[in-house]
Amino acid sequence: MNKGSITKQKIINESLQLFSVKGYYHTSMNDILEATHLTKGGLYGHFKSKEDIWHTVYEEAVTIWKEIVFKDIQLIDDPIKRIQKALENDLKIYLGGNVFDGGCIFLNMLVELSGQSSLMSHCVLEGIMGFSRLIRTWLIEADEKNLLKPDLDFNEIADFIVTALNGCAALYASTRDPKILEVTRSQINYYLEQMKN
To answer: Which CATH number is associated with domain 70-195?
Structure first.
């Protein structure tokens, strides 16, 4: 990695943590300059605006989240166990591991950006709903393998799981109580087990 790439990655990493704690609107370009120890020229040589930084930071956060949540998922044939593993990774390693200083950066961004920037908030919401759609496809796969009771509403179930995760993320961010993560994991697993044949 050359010096320019290292500098750009430093801007991304520092901005990611700043946005997760202070939010996009409360993070100034001076905050980013201070955190990275760069000059304005050094910063603007890589990004033309704070919004430009945000888009790159968002993509970086998605990559980090996917690497954590989908770790070892492809090794699991049973789609219900796959969902349970993804949820465990999300709750124990992503949230419980305090990957971002401010907690779940996606929840934080969605709350802050709603009503402020429809483009950025839509981007975050689409990512969250994409996870719900993925859970739905795994539920359909489980149904096709005759693992589930008949007549279940897969959209409703997937949306409920994602809603529960985001509620958990909000409570955990304000308390840092690991019991919240464990109770959420246990309750969602119980819910999934009740759907099995």
So the answer is: 1.10.357.10
Read off the amino acid at residue 76: I
**What tokens does 10 get?**
């430093």
Distance between CA atoms of residues 175 and 184, nearest Å: 14
Alpha-carbon torsion (112, 115, 119, 123), positive or negative: positive
**pTM, two decimal places:** 0.94
Say whether 70-195 and 1-49 share the same fold: no
Task: Considering only the C-alpha atoms of the chain, give the largest distance between any 2 of them, rounded to a whole number of Å.
Answer: 62
- Please report, for the chain, the start and end positions of each structural domain, with discontinuous segments joined by +: 1-49, 70-195
Q: Which two three-digit tokens encode residue 188?
A: 């969602």
Please tell me the distance from the alpha carbon of residue 13 to that of residue 27, in angstroms, as a whole number.
Answer: 14
| CATH numeric code, 1-49 | 1.10.10.60
For the chain, give the number of residues. Answer: 197
Q: What is the pLDDT of residues 109-123, one digit of tens each?
A: 999 999 999 999 999
- Report phi then psi at 148, rounded to 5: -120, 155
* Segment holding 180, helix H or strand E: helix 178-195
**Cα 36 to the chain's mean position, in Å?**
24
Written as six digits, the tokens of 186 are: 């246990």
Distances (CA, A) of 179 to 27, 72, 172: 31, 25, 9
pLDDT in tens, 73-97: 999 999 999 999 999 999 999 999 9
Report the distance separating Cα 165 and Cα 185, nearest Å: 9
